[in-house]
Every structure is written in structure tokens, then in C-alpha cells.
Design brief:
Elements lengths: L13 H4 E4 L2 E5 L10 E4 L2 H9 L7 H16 L5 H16 L6 H21 L3 H29 L5 E5 L5 H13 L3 E6 L6 H12 L3 E5 L4 H8 L3 E4 L3 E2 L5 E4 L2 H10 L4 E4 L24 E2 L2 E2 L12 E4 L6 E4 L2 E3 L21
Parallel strand pairs: 4-5, 4-7, 5-6, 7-10, 10-14
Antiparallel strand pairs: 1-2, 2-3, 8-9, 9-13, 11-12, 14-15
Helix pairs in contact: 2-3, 2-4, 3-4, 3-5, 3-6, 4-5, 5-6, 6-7
């Protein structure tokens, strides 16, 4: 089967995101990558869900991990009757889908597709775990291909020798954006905000940009406004963990404040992704609050005195007035026009693939 991850950086290859094989799921530990290439091995679907909760994989990584976790669940219940297997898999789907609260809607699309693949495999007397793996590769191919179309539209918005500011780790869109830019001979200079407290920008985005051959600079999270002004940033861009139909965008915490600075300086902010049907407005987004003590350290080194308190929202919400455009596989939409995305039958970046 031809795969859409060819030509992308190491950590964007399917096997290096998360992979099921022989009764285990192996997940690249993005908490330590790239200084250390280490995989976490999960022996149950519950361990996969816990790995997602514990941020072993981040950005779009949990979606592949969730699907591979469903393959592992199929392996766990392989000796049960057909009805009992489906019951087991439905319970596993709920456990995995709710591992992180802000992306439950997208996760249920992933696990729902796995359930459909499992039903077909059971009816055909096929290996259910392998059927789910094969389904996941097809689903990933479809999503990666959609993201590549987004990248085509996004790169259209970058000037030659453009200076691009990123936030957090936009996973597939970063790889596809750079792949398209490289194919077109469009040179870019990337500035990656470090994205504390997990440093996804410094560790993940910067690694992908550098590995794919682009001039890459890491800045700390309190530098974006200065860098915009001093270095002449042309475009601020990010992906999103949820995009509401009314144009509100949930993304890694810090996106909102960078969007404010970009708006003040007249720099366009483009968000890549498709609207989520289950999110009509910002009221439909549940912001995940993580362990506040994690903000009191940097990569495991305590930075604050004992006794002070931390505060850790994983995401924030940027209002549509600060978003120049939503870059989708159907083109670029103004936030107010985002509901038209579905006019021609588009199904979104994440869909329940059969």
C-alpha cells in the first residue's frame, strides 16, 4: 500500500508515531525526543490510554496511538465470541477516546472507524487486530493527503524567503508545509516558539524543520512580539486542537497571546485544519487543566521555590477576530465563512473512515 508519510521527517513516519505489532503498541516518547529516541511499549489498551494522558505522544500523535490501541484491544479479546469482542472493543474505544478531554470528539471519530473495521473483519473471519492496523494506515493516508492539500494553500500565502513564526507542534501540517515548499523551491526561515512546559516547539517542530533542511531558530515563549518587530515576521501560523464553526480556535496555550501581538503588528495569522462539527462555538470546548506543578519545572529541573503554586491550562481559545484565515483542504476560509466548508460535501480533516 502506498503511504502518504514518504519523504517526511523521522517522527512523522507512521511506525515512529505509534505502531501495533505482536500484542504490543510502541509509541515514540515525545517527552524526551529528540535528545533521546525512546519508545514506550504498551501491553494493554489501558496503557495506551494512559500514555496519551501522560503526554507520551502529543499533537496529532494521539490519534494514531488511539487507533493502534484499538488494534491492541482486539488482540486482548481475540479469544472471546464475536458479540463479546464487539462489547469489549466499544468499552476500549471509550477509554481511549476520553484520555484527554479537549480532543474527545476527534478521538471518537478515530476509534469509531476502528470499530467499523473490526465489525467487517469479524464478519469476514479475518484477524481483527491486523484489520484495524490496515484500516489505520488507510485512514492516516487519507488524513495526510488532506493535510497536504492544506499545505498547498498555506504555502501559497508565504512569500519567497518568508519568515514564518510557529506555535507548538503542528505535526503533519509542518511536515507537509515544508515538503510542498521544498518541491516549489520556496525558501523559508522558521522561528519556533519553544512552547513550555513541554517544549514541543523547541524539541519537535524545530527538529522537523531542521531535519527537512530549513533555516530554523528557536525562541522562548516571551519573545514573539519582539521577534515579530525586530526580525520582520511575515506570517504567524499554527494548527489547532479544535476549530469551532463560528471561527474560535483552540490550540496550545500561548496561541491567543501571539495572535494578539500579530494582530497589533499587522501580521496575518493562518490556522491550518478543518472545522469540527461537534464544536459550534467556544462553549463546546473543554479546556484541559493539567498538573499545575509541571509549570514549576523545566524538563524535569525544578525552577521555583517550594511552596509557590503553579497553573497549567493545556490550551487557550483564540477568537475569530484575531484569525486571518482557516486553511483547509477545501481552500482558505475567513472565520465568519467557515460554515461554508461543508457546502460541497467535505467531511473534515478527521472523519470516520470505513
Amino acid at each position: 500500500m502506498e503511504r502518504a508519510d514518504q519523504g517526511l521527517a523521522f517522527m512523522l513516519q507512521y511506525e515512529n508515531v505509534a505502531w501495533y505489532e505482536d500484542g504490543t503498541v510502541r509509541i515514540l516518547d515525545r517527552r524526551v525526543y529528540p535528545r533521546e529516541v525512546r519508545f514506550v511499549t504498551c501491553h494493554t489498551h489501558g496503557e495506551v490510554a494512559q500514555a496519551i494522558t501522560d503526554m507520551v505522544t502529543q499533537s496529532a500523535g494521539p490519534f494514531t496511538a488511539a487507533a493502534m490501541g484499538m488494534a491492541l484491544a482486539a488482540y486482548e479479546c481475540r479469544d472471546l465470541g464475536e458479540a463479546a469482542q464487539l462489547t469489549y472493543l466499544k468499552a476500549a474505544a471509550e477509554t481511549i477516546s476520553t484520555a484527554r478531554p479537549t480532543t474527545v470528539g476527534r478521538m471518537r471519530l478515530i476509534t469509531g472507524g476502528c470499530l467499523l473495521a473490526a465489525e467487517k473483519a469479524l464478519q469476514a473471519g479475518e484477524n481483527v487486530a491486523q484489520a484495524i492496523v490496515d484500516h489505520t494506515v488507510r485512514a492516516n493516508n487519507l488524513r495526510y493527503s488532506k493535510v497536504e492539500r492544506m499545505a498547498e494553500y498555506l504555502v501559497d500565502l508565504f512569500p519567497q524567503n518568508g519568515k514564518i513564526l510557529t506555535q507548538c507542534f503542528a505535526e503533519t501540517i509542518v511536515g507537509m508545509m515544508l515538503k510542498v515548499a521544498r518541491q516549489r523551491g520556496k525558501m523559508l526561515k522558521l522561528y519556533c516558539a519553544e512552547t513550555r512546559p513541554y517544549f514541543q516547539g523547541a524539541r519537535l517542530t524545530a527538529t522537523v524543520c531542521h531535519e527537512m533542511g530549513f533555516d530554523t531558530t528557536v525562541i522562548t515563549d516571551n519573545m514573539p512580539a519582539f521577534v515579530m518587530e525586530r526580525e520582520g515576521i511575515d506570517v504567524f501560523t499554527s494548527a489547532a486542537d479544535a476549530i469551532c464553526l463560528d471561527g474560535h480556535v483552540a490550540n496550545k496555550v500561548g496561541t491567543f497571546q501571539i495572535a494578539i501581538a500579530a494582530n497589533y503588528m499587522g501580521i496575518p495569522f493562518y490556522v491550518s485544519g478543518a472545522p469540527d462539527v461537534g464544536h459550534k462555538s467556544r462553549e463546546d470546548i473543554h479546556i484541559e487543566m493539567r498538573d499545575p506543578d509541571f509549570t514549576l519545572q523545566a524538563m524535569g529541573v525544578r525552577t521555583a521555590v517550594d511552596g509557590v503554586k503553579g497553573y497549567y491550562p493545556a490550551f487557550d481559545i483564540t477568537p475569530p477576530a484575531l484569525v486571518t484565515g482557516i486553511v483547509t483542504d477545501q481552500g482558505v476560509f475567513a472565520p465568519a465563512d467557515l460554515h461554508h466548508y461543508f457546502d460541497n460535501g467535505a467531511l473534515g480533516e478527521f472523519e470516520m473512515v470505513i
